[in-house]
């Protein structure tokens, strides 16, 4: 029996489709029944007859912060994909980010150790990697630097990785994947899916930094191959292509038939904008959208190398241009 956490999110839902479609006995945890709709929406991107496959999943209500609820979820499980996380860049959410991402992951790996789970696959992020000197390619050996301008999200994803590495020292077999920005269909309300909506409405500006991209189908494919392999206790960067934000936002706009962004948001402009965002938050309680650390990352010219996974699995990534086109087509079809 395979257990998936985060099955109502983008990665977990696409993974669940892949697993049940391959005939795997699969259990998934959920927190709120309403969110199961999202998993169905993702399944509907693959097939009209999605309910049949959806019904093959054994759903258990559990929260990764709540150890007793995880007990039932781990019953008879042999393999675990831990995709659940709280994704937020708001400094005010730091305490909750720590609770869900670090303590929640500690609960998952402790449960894996207690239940003698054969293998865990943990979905981390490229945000846990460091910043190289002289703009060299970032690899799995570019280590975290606490002195960098790290986002609150990155700090907690790094803390979560530490929990996984600690568990491997205690005997757990685990692999960690570090994807870049994941593009996929089915969830358009938030996350990367919401970018398609925003691009259709029209985005005016692009930033001067670079964005590391990967198709969700590649992420899932690699995760399942790593789980089936004898590879353990290693992490892998998953980035198909490094694009400039300009190229990404212009291609995205073209694919969803939105206005093409043609104005550069310079570092100077961004530094004014994050201060205004902070002020609006302090004065009228507006939710933070642009933080100082996020602006640094939007302007950073980072390039990630996926050579390690390409070599380990002889992997060929899906070209991003094609992914962007097919996800945009799906978006336009569903956004009627
Ligand atoms: N999307 C990306 O571009 C990207 C890039 C790199 C890495 N990642 C990583 O990939 C993983 C999956 O990301 P995603 O895009 O699929 O995120 P997502 O769409 O935001 O989904 C997050 C999932 O985690 C679940 N979750 C959150 N808190 C939980 C808790 N306390 N207990 C149980 N489940 C909880 C959510 O459940 P609810 O539906 O109940 O909220 C949801 O199923 C995350 O670890 C993320 O850090 C994502």
Kindly list the characteristics that best describe this protein.
single chain; 336 residues; alpha/beta; Rossmann fold; 3-stranded mixed β-sheet; 15% strand; binds NADP nicotinamide-adenine-dinucleotide phosphate
Going across the major beta sheet, what is the strand order? 3-2-1-4-5-6-10
Bound molecules: NADP nicotinamide-adenine-dinucleotide phosphate
Radius of gyration: 20 Å
The helix/strand class is: alpha/beta
Annotation field: number of helices: 13
Separation, N- and C-terminal Cα atoms:
39 Å
Q: What is the CATH top level name?
A: Alpha Beta
β content, as a range? 15-25%
Coarse shape: globular
Q: What does this protein look like?
A:
The chain is an alpha/beta fold. It has a single domain, classed as NAD(P)-binding Rossmann-like Domain (Rossmann fold), CATH 3.40.50. It is built from 13 helices and twelve strands. The strands form three sheets. A seven-stranded parallel sheet has the order 3-2-1-4-5-6-10, sandwiched between helices. It has a three-stranded mixed sheet with strand order 7-9-11. Strands 8-12 form a two-stranded parallel ribbon. The protein is globular and about 55 Å long. NADP nicotinamide-adenine-dinucleotide phosphate binds at residues 5-12, 29, 31-32, 35, 63-65, 83-87, 100, 104, 123, 125, 157, 179, 181-182, 191-192. NADP nicotinamide-adenine-dinucleotide phosphate (NAP) is lined by residues 5-12, 29, 31-32, 35, 63-65, 83-87, 100, 104, 123, 125, 157, 179, 181-182, 191-192.
């Amino acid at each position: 029996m395979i257990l998936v956490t985060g099955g109502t999110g983008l990665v977990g839902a696409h993974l669940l489709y892949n697993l049940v479609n391959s005939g795997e006995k699969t259990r998934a945890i959920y927190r709120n029944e309403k969110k199961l709709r999202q998993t169905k929406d993702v399944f509907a991107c693959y097939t009209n007859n999605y309910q049949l496959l959806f019904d093959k999943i054994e759903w258990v209500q559990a929260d990764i912060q709540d150890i007793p609820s995880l007990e039932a979820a781990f019953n008879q499980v042999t393999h675990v994909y831990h995709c659940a996380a709280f994704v937020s860049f708001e400094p005010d959410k730091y305490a909750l980010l720590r609770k869900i991402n670090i303590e929640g992951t500690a609960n998952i790996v402790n449960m894996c150790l207690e239940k003698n789970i054969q293998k865990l696959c943990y979905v981390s992020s490229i945000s846990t990697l460091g910043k190289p000197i002289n703009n060299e390619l970032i690899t799995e050996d570019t280590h975290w630097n606490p002195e960098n301008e790290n986002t609150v999200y990155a700090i907690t994803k790094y803390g979560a990785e530490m929990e996984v590495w600690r568990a491997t020292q205690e005997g757990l077999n685990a692999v960690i994947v570090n994807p870049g920005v994941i593009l996929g269909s089915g969830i358009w309300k938030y996350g990367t899916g919401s970018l398609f909506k925003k691009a259709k409405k029209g985005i005016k500006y692009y930033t001067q930094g670079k964005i590391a991209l990967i198709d969700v189908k590649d992420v899932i494919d690699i995760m399942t191959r790593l789980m089936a392999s004898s590879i353990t206790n290693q992490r892998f960067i998953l980035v198909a292509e490094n694009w400039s934000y300009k190229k990404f936002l212009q291609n995205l706009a073209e694919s969803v038939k939105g206005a093409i962004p043609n104005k550069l948001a310079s570092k100077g402009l961004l530094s004014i904008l994050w201060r205004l965002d902070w002020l609006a938050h302090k004065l009228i309680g507006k939710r933070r959208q642009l933080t100082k650390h996020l602006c640094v990352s939007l302007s950073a010219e980072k390039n990630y190398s996926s050579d390690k996974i390409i070599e380990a699995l002889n992997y060929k990534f899906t070209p991003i241009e094609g992914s962007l086109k097919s996800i945009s087509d799906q978006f336009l079809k569903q956004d009627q």
